[in-house]
């Protein structure tokens, strides 16, 4: 893809960004990646997502550098989403796989990846930016859910749960922060359940989230599957 959030800050640091996604065919994208490496010789080629592991593995072997593949979720869902052939190859071809989740590493082992090819890189938290807010007096509980508005995150499950909590007479205010293809569906579901502001706010994604976290009491995660979610 092109034009995502981090592309701008990376360019501002003076780091060149080259887009290879204009080619719809996989061989064309692989050729574009190989040309980029040939123009700017490199020792390590890293895949940022599981779905680009095969590009990285093939290009690295082709040009004689080392590759690092990625596990960004729980390994099982990623492999299944690409199908048995491509999913299996994407898991087994990289000579090294980095994961931010112990669960993903254990699942990868069960799927046949040798432990020597797996490395844990835990998520980090900037504790100067993300720190607890001052205590607030008891009252309305403020709930927060953050993530892409896609099937995996199961925000529909969250909305159903909020309706049950409301029907039991408990006081809360909830906010969902995110973007994605299910926004209109979730808006319609919230309306049908009678979940309206200030009880529920469906907010847009933003780049700075520390203040949003400090404004709330509980973070709610309803996903069907995760690794170690960045939002947590």
What does the model show?
With 232 residues, this protein is of the alpha/beta class. 36% of the residues lie in helices and 14% in strands. It is built from nine helices and eight strands. The strands form two sheets. Strands 1-2-3-4 form a four-stranded parallel beta sheet, covered by helices on one side. Strands 7-6-5-8 form a four-stranded parallel beta sheet, with helices on one face. Strand 6 (172-177), helix 8 and strand 7 (200-203) form a beta-alpha-beta unit. The model has no long low-confidence stretch (mean pLDDT 92).
In short:
By secondary structure, the chain is an alpha/beta fold. The chain has helices at 7-12, 26-39, 53-63, 76-81, 83-92, 102-110, 155-167, 183-192, 210-214; strands spanning 44-46, 66-71, 97-99, 118-120, 141-146, 172-177, 200-203, 218-219.
Largest sheet: spatial strand order = 1-2-3-4
Portion of residues within helices? 25-40%
Structural category: alpha/beta
Query: How many strands?
Result: 8
Portion of residues in beta strands equals 5-15%
Shape verdict = elongated
Alpha plus pi helix count: 9
Runs with pLDDT <50, length 5+?
A: none
Mean pLDDT: 92
Rg, please?
21 Å
Largest sheet descriptor: 4 strands, parallel
Order of helices and strands: HHEHEHHEHEEHEHEHE
Termini Cα gap = 25 Å
């Amino acid at each position: 893809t092109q034009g995502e959030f981090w592309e701008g800050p990376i360019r501002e640091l003076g780091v060149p960004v080259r887009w290879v996604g204009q080619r719809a065919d996989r061989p064309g994208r692989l050729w574009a990646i190989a040309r980029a490496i040939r123009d700017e010789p490199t020792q390590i080629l890293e895949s940022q997502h599981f779905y680009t592991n095969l590009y990285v593995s093939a290009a690295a072997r082709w040009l004689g550098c080392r590759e690092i593949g990625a596990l960004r979720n729980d390994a099982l869902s990623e492999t299944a989403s690409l199908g048995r052939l491509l999913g299996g190859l994407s898991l087994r071809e990289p000579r090294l796989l980095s994961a931010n989740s112990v669960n993903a590493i254990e699942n990868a082992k069960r799927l046949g990846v040798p432990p020597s090819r797996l490395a844990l890189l835990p998520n980090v938290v900037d504790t100067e930016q993300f720190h607890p807010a001052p205590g607030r007096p008891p009252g309305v509980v403020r709930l927060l859910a953050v993530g892409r508005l896609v099937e995996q995150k199961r925000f529909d499950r969250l909305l159903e749960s909020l309706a049950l909590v409301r029907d039991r007479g408990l006081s809360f205010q909830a906010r969902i922060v995110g973007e994605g293809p299910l926004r209109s569906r979730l808006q319609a579901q919230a309306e049908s359940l009678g979940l309206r502001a200030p009880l529920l706010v469906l907010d847009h994604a933003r780049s700075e989230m520390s203040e949003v976290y400090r404004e709330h009491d509980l973070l709610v995660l309803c996903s069907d599957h995760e690794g170690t979610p960045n939002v947590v």
